[in-house]
Amino acid sequence: MRGRISPTVSIIVPTLNEAKNLPHVLARLPGDAEIILVDGHSTDGTVEVARRVRPDIVVTHQNRRGKGNALACGFAQASGDIIVMLDADGSADPSEIPAFVNALEAGADFAKGSRFVANGGSADITRLRRLGNRLLNFLVNMLIGSDFTDLCYGYNAFWRRVVPIFDLDTGGAGPQKQWGDGFEIETLINMRAVRAGLRIAEVPSFEHPRLHGVSNLNAFSDGFRVLRTIFVESSASSEKAELAIYPRTDPLPIQRGAETVSALPAFEETA
């Protein structure tokens, strides 16, 4: 009987002046994971702190501006079977990573963190952001027939081999943000995952307050970028979905909770 081989994991951590938060965050990450820090040209010693706390960390620099570009650059560097998106501000709990991995091993292609399912929650979200997320969430579900509960949350994991489905642009350096370079990245990849028919599982997650510093998120300007993303992506051709790695004519509904996830069909390895 063949022994079970666990998938390897790459954790992508986008940073911009997060030196004060990294000792707490990096010390709690699994020792056997590949940690890729994608820095946005920090000026507070972020990279030096990261290397001191985690000597094996892989450091790369994004080639444009914005969280989306940083994540895309990290995805391109990852070598693990599974990619985990993790914020550097201490809001995401690293102890939840096994739940995301379990969801993927149970048959999901994409594991979506949610603060608004049983056992999820947030100690950080404001009333304005909660309302905005709820409205944007409703809009996406109505336009593309999805069933998301937490559209704009950035704690997600997926098999590395589905990255081409997201069709993210990492080419060309320059000061100007391009499509998907900002905080709209979560909405963009979530919608493209649905359009491609990926098997999506929602994983309960608790969002903690940022440890130090101030978020770069602007509720209004970034909210408008997300809104624009929703309308553009919802009207896009489904041609990419037909050419996706796992094309389906009947995308599965989002599954929630460990019991539902475990009932998904076994994931078949490709040669």
TrEMBL record:
InterPro entries: Glyco_trans_2-like, Glycosyltransferase_2, Nucleotide-diphossugar_trans. Residues 10-162 form the Glycosyltransferase 2-like domain. It comes from the Bacteria. GO terms for molecular function: transferase activity. Keywords: Transferase. Pfam families: Glycos_transf_2. Belongs to the glycosyltransferase 2 family. This is Glycosyl transferase, family 2. It comes from Frankia casuarinae (strain DSM 45818 / CECT 9043 / HFP020203 / CcI3).
